[in-house]
Amino acid sequence: MLSARAAVRTLKEYHPPLGGREGLRLDFNENTVGCSPRVLEALRNLDPERLAKYPEREPVEQAVAEFLGIAPAQVLLTNGVDEGIHLLCETYLESGDEVIVAVPTFSMYEIYAAATGARVITVLAKEDFAFPTAEVLARITGRTRLIAFANPNNPTGRAASREDLLKIAAAAPDAALLVDEAYFDFYGQTVLDAASTAPNLFVARTFSKAYGLAGLRIGVLAGAAEQMKMVRRVSSPYNVNGVALACLPAALADREYIRDYVAEVGHGRERLEKELAELSVRYWPSQANFVLALIGAESGRFVGAMRERGILVRDRSSDPGCQGCVRMTLGSREQTDRLIAALRAVMAELKSAKVSA
Protein backbone atom coordinates (compact mmCIF):
# COMPACT_ATOMS: atom_id res chain seq x y z
CA MET A 1 0.00 0.00 0.00
CA LEU A 2 1.32 3.42 -0.95
CA SER A 3 2.31 5.48 2.07
CA ALA A 4 3.74 8.96 2.50
CA ARG A 5 7.13 9.37 4.14
CA ALA A 6 7.12 9.21 7.94
CA ALA A 7 8.17 12.86 8.14
CA VAL A 8 5.11 13.85 6.10
CA ARG A 9 2.68 11.63 8.01
CA THR A 10 3.61 13.32 11.29
CA LEU A 11 3.81 16.84 9.86
CA LYS A 12 1.89 19.70 11.45
CA GLU A 13 -0.78 21.16 9.19
CA TYR A 14 -1.27 24.86 8.60
CA HIS A 15 -4.93 25.80 8.19
CA PRO A 16 -5.35 29.54 7.60
CA PRO A 17 -8.96 30.66 8.17
CA LEU A 18 -9.74 31.51 4.56
CA GLY A 19 -13.47 30.77 4.46
CA GLY A 20 -16.19 33.30 5.24
CA ARG A 21 -13.93 36.34 5.38
CA GLU A 22 -16.44 39.03 4.50
CA GLY A 23 -15.70 42.43 5.99
CA LEU A 24 -12.64 44.58 6.57
CA ARG A 25 -9.83 42.02 6.45
CA LEU A 26 -7.39 43.02 9.18
CA ASP A 27 -6.47 39.42 10.00
CA PHE A 28 -3.89 38.42 7.35
CA ASN A 29 -1.48 41.40 7.24
CA GLU A 30 -2.41 42.02 3.60
CA ASN A 31 -2.37 45.38 1.87
CA THR A 32 -5.87 46.61 2.70
CA VAL A 33 -6.41 48.99 -0.23
CA GLY A 34 -4.97 47.03 -3.16
CA CYS A 35 -2.09 47.34 -5.57
CA SER A 36 -0.82 50.37 -7.47
CA PRO A 37 -2.97 51.58 -10.40
CA ARG A 38 0.09 50.96 -12.56
CA VAL A 39 -0.24 47.24 -11.82
CA LEU A 40 -3.86 47.28 -12.97
CA GLU A 41 -2.76 49.00 -16.16
CA ALA A 42 -0.13 46.30 -16.73
CA LEU A 43 -2.82 43.66 -16.26
CA ARG A 44 -5.10 45.33 -18.80
CA ASN A 45 -2.26 45.44 -21.32
CA LEU A 46 -1.53 41.71 -21.15
CA ASP A 47 -1.93 40.05 -24.52
CA PRO A 48 -2.93 36.44 -25.33
CA GLU A 49 0.52 35.59 -26.72
CA ARG A 50 2.22 36.40 -23.44
CA LEU A 51 -0.16 34.16 -21.54
CA ALA A 52 0.46 31.33 -24.02
CA LYS A 53 4.22 31.36 -23.42
CA TYR A 54 6.24 29.90 -20.58
CA PRO A 55 7.27 32.78 -18.30
CA GLU A 56 10.79 34.21 -18.52
CA ARG A 57 11.98 35.05 -15.05
CA GLU A 58 15.49 36.38 -15.72
CA PRO A 59 14.67 39.83 -17.19
CA VAL A 60 12.52 40.67 -14.19
CA GLU A 61 15.16 39.30 -11.82
CA GLN A 62 17.60 41.78 -13.31
CA ALA A 63 15.16 44.61 -12.64
CA VAL A 64 14.62 43.40 -9.07
CA ALA A 65 18.38 43.10 -8.51
CA GLU A 66 18.83 46.70 -9.66
CA PHE A 67 15.98 47.78 -7.39
CA LEU A 68 17.60 46.02 -4.42
CA GLY A 69 21.10 47.22 -5.26
CA ILE A 70 22.65 43.75 -5.62
CA ALA A 71 23.92 41.57 -8.47
CA PRO A 72 21.41 39.58 -10.60
CA ALA A 73 23.28 36.38 -9.68
CA GLN A 74 22.23 36.98 -6.07
CA VAL A 75 18.50 37.08 -6.85
CA LEU A 76 15.91 34.36 -7.34
CA LEU A 77 12.25 35.25 -7.80
CA THR A 78 10.00 32.82 -5.98
CA ASN A 79 6.34 31.89 -5.69
CA GLY A 80 5.98 33.99 -2.55
CA VAL A 81 8.32 33.76 0.43
CA ASP A 82 6.86 30.31 1.11
CA GLU A 83 8.66 28.87 -1.89
CA GLY A 84 11.90 30.56 -0.85
CA ILE A 85 11.72 28.77 2.50
CA HIS A 86 10.94 25.50 0.76
CA LEU A 87 13.86 25.85 -1.65
CA LEU A 88 16.33 26.49 1.15
CA CYS A 89 15.10 23.38 2.97
CA GLU A 90 15.43 21.30 -0.20
CA THR A 91 18.90 22.69 -0.91
CA TYR A 92 20.53 22.30 2.50
CA LEU A 93 18.59 19.84 4.68
CA GLU A 94 18.82 16.10 5.01
CA SER A 95 17.15 13.72 7.44
CA GLY A 96 18.72 14.10 10.86
CA ASP A 97 19.96 17.66 10.36
CA GLU A 98 18.95 20.32 12.85
CA VAL A 99 16.98 23.49 12.23
CA ILE A 100 16.62 26.34 14.73
CA VAL A 101 13.49 28.49 14.77
CA ALA A 102 12.66 31.20 17.31
CA VAL A 103 8.98 31.06 18.30
CA PRO A 104 6.32 32.31 18.09
CA THR A 105 6.74 32.86 14.38
CA PHE A 106 5.54 31.97 10.87
CA SER A 107 4.54 28.28 10.87
CA MET A 108 5.98 27.38 7.46
CA TYR A 109 9.61 27.41 8.64
CA GLU A 110 8.93 24.43 10.84
CA ILE A 111 6.62 22.69 8.38
CA TYR A 112 8.98 22.81 5.38
CA ALA A 113 11.99 21.87 7.51
CA ALA A 114 10.26 18.95 9.22
CA ALA A 115 9.08 17.61 5.86
CA THR A 116 12.72 16.87 4.96
CA GLY A 117 13.14 14.71 8.06
CA ALA A 118 15.22 17.34 9.82
CA ARG A 119 14.85 17.90 13.56
CA VAL A 120 13.32 21.29 14.34
CA ILE A 121 14.54 22.96 17.52
CA THR A 122 12.28 25.78 18.71
CA VAL A 123 13.68 28.53 20.92
CA LEU A 124 11.10 30.55 22.83
CA ALA A 125 11.34 34.32 22.63
CA LYS A 126 12.41 36.12 25.78
CA GLU A 127 10.22 38.30 27.98
CA ASP A 128 8.11 40.74 25.95
CA PHE A 129 8.95 38.63 22.88
CA ALA A 130 12.51 40.00 22.74
CA PHE A 131 14.79 38.17 20.31
CA PRO A 132 16.55 35.25 22.10
CA THR A 133 20.06 35.78 20.71
CA ALA A 134 22.01 34.05 23.49
CA GLU A 135 19.59 31.13 23.57
CA VAL A 136 19.85 30.61 19.80
CA LEU A 137 23.65 30.74 19.93
CA ALA A 138 23.61 28.12 22.69
CA ARG A 139 21.57 25.69 20.54
CA ILE A 140 23.91 25.76 17.52
CA THR A 141 25.70 22.42 17.05
CA GLY A 142 27.67 20.65 14.36
CA ARG A 143 24.35 19.32 13.03
CA THR A 144 22.72 22.75 12.60
CA ARG A 145 22.05 23.33 8.89
CA LEU A 146 19.32 25.99 8.85
CA ILE A 147 18.33 28.85 11.16
CA ALA A 148 15.21 30.82 10.23
CA PHE A 149 13.90 34.11 11.59
CA ALA A 150 11.25 36.60 10.51
CA ASN A 151 12.50 40.16 11.01
CA PRO A 152 10.28 41.93 12.01
CA ASN A 153 8.65 38.86 13.46
CA ASN A 154 5.13 37.66 12.86
CA PRO A 155 2.93 37.66 14.98
CA THR A 156 4.78 39.84 17.53
CA GLY A 157 6.05 42.72 15.38
CA ARG A 158 9.34 42.67 17.29
CA ALA A 159 12.67 42.89 15.47
CA ALA A 160 16.18 41.53 16.07
CA SER A 161 19.15 43.83 15.70
CA ARG A 162 21.44 43.62 12.69
CA GLU A 163 24.33 42.95 15.07
CA ASP A 164 22.62 39.92 16.60
CA LEU A 165 21.64 38.44 13.22
CA LEU A 166 25.15 38.74 11.82
CA LYS A 167 26.57 37.33 15.05
CA ILE A 168 24.43 34.22 14.55
CA ALA A 169 25.49 33.93 10.91
CA ALA A 170 29.14 34.04 11.96
CA ALA A 171 28.59 31.48 14.73
CA ALA A 172 27.02 28.93 12.36
CA PRO A 173 29.11 28.97 9.15
CA ASP A 174 27.85 25.50 8.16
CA ALA A 175 24.20 26.53 8.41
CA ALA A 176 22.04 28.64 6.14
CA LEU A 177 20.63 31.65 8.00
CA LEU A 178 17.33 32.84 6.56
CA VAL A 179 16.23 36.33 7.53
CA ASP A 180 12.66 36.70 6.31
CA GLU A 181 12.09 40.41 5.72
CA ALA A 182 8.46 40.14 4.61
CA TYR A 183 7.64 43.30 6.60
CA PHE A 184 10.75 45.24 5.59
CA ASP A 185 8.78 48.10 4.01
CA PHE A 186 7.20 48.95 7.37
CA TYR A 187 10.51 48.63 9.26
CA GLY A 188 13.14 50.03 6.92
CA GLN A 189 16.14 48.10 8.28
CA THR A 190 17.78 45.17 6.50
CA VAL A 191 20.76 42.82 6.42
CA LEU A 192 20.52 42.42 2.65
CA ASP A 193 23.74 44.31 2.04
CA ALA A 194 25.63 41.72 4.14
CA ALA A 195 24.63 38.85 1.83
CA SER A 196 27.68 39.48 -0.37
CA THR A 197 30.11 39.05 2.52
CA ALA A 198 28.28 36.48 4.67
CA PRO A 199 28.13 33.40 2.42
CA ASN A 200 25.54 31.60 4.57
CA LEU A 201 23.10 34.53 4.83
CA PHE A 202 19.86 34.57 2.83
CA VAL A 203 17.23 37.30 2.81
CA ALA A 204 13.62 36.82 1.69
CA ARG A 205 11.25 39.60 0.68
CA THR A 206 7.64 39.51 -0.43
CA PHE A 207 5.46 41.69 -2.62
CA SER A 208 2.32 40.46 -0.82
CA LYS A 209 2.31 43.04 1.97
CA ALA A 210 3.05 46.69 1.12
CA TYR A 211 2.79 46.08 -2.64
CA GLY A 212 -0.63 44.43 -2.54
CA LEU A 213 0.28 41.49 -4.79
CA ALA A 214 -0.62 38.61 -2.46
CA GLY A 215 -2.90 37.11 -5.10
CA LEU A 216 -0.08 36.97 -7.66
CA ARG A 217 2.25 35.07 -5.29
CA ILE A 218 5.64 36.61 -5.92
CA GLY A 219 8.63 37.09 -3.65
CA VAL A 220 12.41 37.16 -3.85
CA LEU A 221 15.19 35.18 -2.21
CA ALA A 222 18.66 36.74 -2.16
CA GLY A 223 22.04 35.54 -1.01
CA ALA A 224 25.65 35.05 -2.02
CA ALA A 225 25.95 34.27 -5.74
CA GLU A 226 27.67 30.90 -5.21
CA GLN A 227 24.96 29.73 -2.83
CA MET A 228 22.12 31.02 -4.98
CA LYS A 229 23.54 28.93 -7.81
CA MET A 230 22.83 25.84 -5.67
CA VAL A 231 19.34 27.01 -4.74
CA ARG A 232 18.50 27.51 -8.41
CA ARG A 233 19.21 23.82 -9.03
CA VAL A 234 16.13 22.81 -7.02
CA SER A 235 13.91 25.56 -8.41
CA SER A 236 11.68 25.16 -11.42
CA PRO A 237 12.61 27.58 -14.23
CA TYR A 238 8.90 28.43 -14.45
CA ASN A 239 8.08 28.80 -10.75
CA VAL A 240 6.73 32.38 -11.06
CA ASN A 241 3.73 32.87 -13.34
CA GLY A 242 3.80 35.22 -16.30
CA VAL A 243 1.10 37.53 -14.94
CA ALA A 244 3.13 38.20 -11.79
CA LEU A 245 6.27 38.80 -13.86
CA ALA A 246 4.42 41.26 -16.08
CA CYS A 247 3.09 43.21 -13.11
CA LEU A 248 6.08 43.35 -10.78
CA PRO A 249 8.08 46.00 -12.70
CA ALA A 250 5.04 48.29 -12.64
CA ALA A 251 4.67 47.77 -8.90
CA LEU A 252 8.33 48.54 -8.27
CA ALA A 253 8.18 51.67 -10.41
CA ASP A 254 5.42 53.29 -8.37
CA ARG A 255 7.51 54.18 -5.33
CA GLU A 256 5.24 57.06 -4.37
CA TYR A 257 2.26 54.71 -4.03
CA ILE A 258 4.18 52.41 -1.69
CA ARG A 259 5.63 55.33 0.28
CA ASP A 260 2.16 56.82 0.84
CA TYR A 261 0.62 53.49 1.87
CA VAL A 262 3.46 52.68 4.27
CA ALA A 263 3.11 56.15 5.81
CA GLU A 264 -0.63 55.60 6.38
CA VAL A 265 0.06 52.23 7.99
CA GLY A 266 2.71 53.78 10.24
CA HIS A 267 0.32 56.52 11.31
CA GLY A 268 -2.38 53.94 12.00
CA ARG A 269 0.01 51.80 14.02
CA GLU A 270 0.82 54.75 16.28
CA ARG A 271 -2.88 55.52 16.72
CA LEU A 272 -3.77 51.92 17.54
CA GLU A 273 -0.95 51.55 20.06
CA LYS A 274 -2.01 54.81 21.75
CA GLU A 275 -5.62 53.63 21.86
CA LEU A 276 -4.66 50.27 23.39
CA ALA A 277 -2.65 52.08 26.05
CA GLU A 278 -5.60 54.31 26.88
CA LEU A 279 -7.82 51.24 27.16
CA SER A 280 -5.24 49.61 29.49
CA VAL A 281 -4.78 46.76 27.00
CA ARG A 282 -1.26 45.37 26.94
CA TYR A 283 0.39 45.39 23.51
CA TRP A 284 3.85 44.97 22.05
CA PRO A 285 5.35 47.89 20.09
CA SER A 286 5.46 46.75 16.47
CA GLN A 287 7.79 47.33 13.54
CA ALA A 288 5.36 45.73 11.07
CA ASN A 289 1.90 46.49 9.64
CA PHE A 290 0.10 44.95 12.59
CA VAL A 291 -0.03 45.10 16.38
CA LEU A 292 -0.31 42.16 18.78
CA ALA A 293 -2.47 42.86 21.84
CA LEU A 294 -3.20 40.81 24.94
CA ILE A 295 -6.97 40.58 25.24
CA GLY A 296 -6.86 37.68 27.68
CA ALA A 297 -9.41 34.94 28.29
CA GLU A 298 -11.98 36.85 26.24
CA SER A 299 -9.89 36.78 23.04
CA GLY A 300 -12.30 34.44 21.26
CA ARG A 301 -15.30 36.60 22.15
CA PHE A 302 -13.35 39.70 21.14
CA VAL A 303 -12.64 38.30 17.67
CA GLY A 304 -16.28 37.29 17.26
CA ALA A 305 -17.58 40.68 18.38
CA MET A 306 -15.23 42.47 16.00
CA ARG A 307 -16.46 40.23 13.18
CA GLU A 308 -20.06 41.20 14.02
CA ARG A 309 -18.99 44.80 13.42
CA GLY A 310 -17.54 43.88 10.04
CA ILE A 311 -13.87 43.74 11.04
CA LEU A 312 -11.72 40.60 10.93
CA VAL A 313 -8.81 40.24 13.35
CA ARG A 314 -6.75 37.15 14.17
CA ASP A 315 -6.67 35.22 17.45
CA ARG A 316 -3.07 34.03 17.96
CA SER A 317 -3.69 32.11 21.20
CA SER A 318 -2.39 28.88 19.67
CA ASP A 319 1.09 30.34 19.13
CA PRO A 320 3.75 29.70 21.79
CA GLY A 321 3.59 32.36 24.49
CA CYS A 322 0.59 34.10 22.86
CA GLN A 323 -2.31 32.79 24.94
CA GLY A 324 -5.08 35.40 24.82
CA CYS A 325 -3.36 37.50 22.15
CA VAL A 326 -5.04 39.01 19.09
CA ARG A 327 -3.24 40.44 16.06
CA MET A 328 -4.70 43.43 14.22
CA THR A 329 -3.51 44.61 10.81
CA LEU A 330 -3.31 48.31 9.95
CA GLY A 331 -4.40 49.89 6.68
CA SER A 332 -5.63 53.27 5.50
CA ARG A 333 -6.64 56.14 7.81
CA GLU A 334 -10.33 55.49 7.21
CA GLN A 335 -9.87 51.79 7.99
CA THR A 336 -7.98 52.65 11.17
CA ASP A 337 -10.89 54.90 12.18
CA ARG A 338 -13.22 51.91 11.78
CA LEU A 339 -10.88 49.60 13.66
CA ILE A 340 -10.51 51.93 16.64
CA ALA A 341 -14.25 52.65 16.84
CA ALA A 342 -15.00 48.93 16.85
CA LEU A 343 -12.21 48.28 19.37
CA ARG A 344 -13.66 50.83 21.80
CA ALA A 345 -17.16 49.41 21.46
CA VAL A 346 -16.10 45.79 21.89
CA MET A 347 -13.87 46.46 24.88
CA ALA A 348 -16.71 48.37 26.55
CA GLU A 349 -19.07 45.50 25.77
CA LEU A 350 -16.70 42.90 27.27
CA LYS A 351 -16.14 45.06 30.34
CA SER A 352 -19.88 45.47 30.85
CA ALA A 353 -20.46 41.74 30.49
CA LYS A 354 -17.75 41.01 33.07
CA VAL A 355 -19.29 43.47 35.55
CA SER A 356 -22.76 41.96 35.04
CA ALA A 357 -21.43 38.46 35.66
Structure description:
The protein has 357 residues and is an alpha/beta fold. The protein folds into 2 domains: 6-30 and 256-356, Aspartate Aminotransferase, domain 1, CATH 3.90.1150; 37-253, Type I PLP-dependent aspartate aminotransferase-like (Major domain) (Aspartate Aminotransferase, domain 2, 3-Layer(aba) Sandwich), CATH 3.40.640. Helices cover 42% and strands 16% of the residues. It contains 14 helices and 13 strands. The protein has a 7-stranded mixed sheet, with helices on both faces. Strands 9-10-13-12 form a 4-stranded antiparallel sheet, with helices on one face. Helix 8 links the parallel strand 5 (144-150) and strand 6 (176-180). Helix 2 runs antiparallel to helix 11 (242-253), helix 5 (80-92) packs across helix 10 and helix 13 packs across helix 14 (333-356).
Could you give a short description of this structure?
The protein is α/β, with parallel strands linked by helices. The chain has 14 helices and 13 strands.
What does the main sheet amount to?
A: 7 strands, mixed
Mean pLDDT: 96
Helix-strand makeup class: alpha/beta
Quick one: CATH class of the largest domain? Alpha Beta
Strand order of the largest sheet: 2-8-7-6-5-3-4
Low-pLDDT parts are none
User: What portion of residues belong to β-strands?
Assistant: 15-25%
Number of domains: 2
Shape: globular
- CATH architecture of the largest domain, please? 3-Layer(aba) Sandwich
Q: How widely separated are the two ends?
A: 57 Å
Evaluate the radius of gyration.
Answer: 21 Å
What would the CATH topology of the largest domain be?
Aspartate Aminotransferase, domain 2
Q: What string gives the helices and strands in order?
A: HEHHHEHEHEHEHEHEEHHHEEHEEEH
